[in-house]
Design goal:
Elements: E1 3-7, E2 13-19, H1 20-26, E3 30-39, E4 44-49, E5 60-61, E6 63-66, H2 73-85, E7 94-106, E8 109-122, H3 124-128, E9 137-143, H4 145-154, H5 165-173
Parallel strand pairs: 3-8
Antiparallel strand pairs: 1-2, 3-6, 4-5, 4-9, 7-8
Helix pairs in contact: 4-5
């Protein structure tokens, strides 16, 4: 069972925690993270979620997840990258792009969060060593920046990107 820290309106930890399920049921503020992982050749990794996942089944997206109780955001994104792609990332490679507050309600889930997007550069050689987490993912693929921009503009439901993703893409391009 995953426990998450409960945040105040400014994104500070309150000292309280609860289960992921309760936090989403009650709409409590918490933290989530995502990373645009890109190679030194400028290609971005997208991962395809398993088709049996409760949310975004079979959808292509970036690496990410919830910040667990006791973790900071950088530790969480490094952990998520390790779990999902079996890559060891040094903290210096994790560059914060943007943090924003978001609240979405879908069915019984109230996702009230502070969301941080990171850029993480890896080498093409590191990409070759990736071993995906078979319980979570079906596949990974490299996309050019132009392909990512085209997908983001298309509204294709096979792909899901966080709000403000264009900021991360712009920084990778530069």
């Amino acid at each position: 069972m995953e426990y998450l820290d409960i945040l105040d309106e400014n994104g500070n930890k309150t000292g309280k925690k609860d289960t992921r399920e309760n936090i989403h049921k009650l709409g409590l503020l918490h933290s989530e993270v995502a990373a645009f992982i890109y190679t030194d050749t400028g290609k971005v990794i997208l991962q395809k979620r398993k088709s049996n996942k409760a949310t975004y089944a079979g959808v292509w997206s970036v690496t990410g997840g919830h910040v667990l109780a006791g973790e900071n955001n950088e530790e969480a994104i490094i952990r998520e990258i390790k779990e999902e792609l079996n890559l060891n990332i040094e903290k210096e490679k994790v560059i914060l792009v943007i943090t924003y507050k978001s609240k979405k309600v879908k069915d019984d889930v109230i996702n009230n969060k502070f969301f941080s997007i990171y850029n993480v550069e890896i080498s093409e050689n590191q990409f070759e060593t990736i071993e995906i987490q078979k319980e979570e993912l079906e596949d990974i693929k490299l996309f050019s920046i132009e392909e990512i921009e085209s997908i983001m503009n298309s509204g294709d439901k096979q792909y899901k990107f966080p709000q403000n993703s264009e900021v991360a893409i712009k920084l990778i391009k530069n």
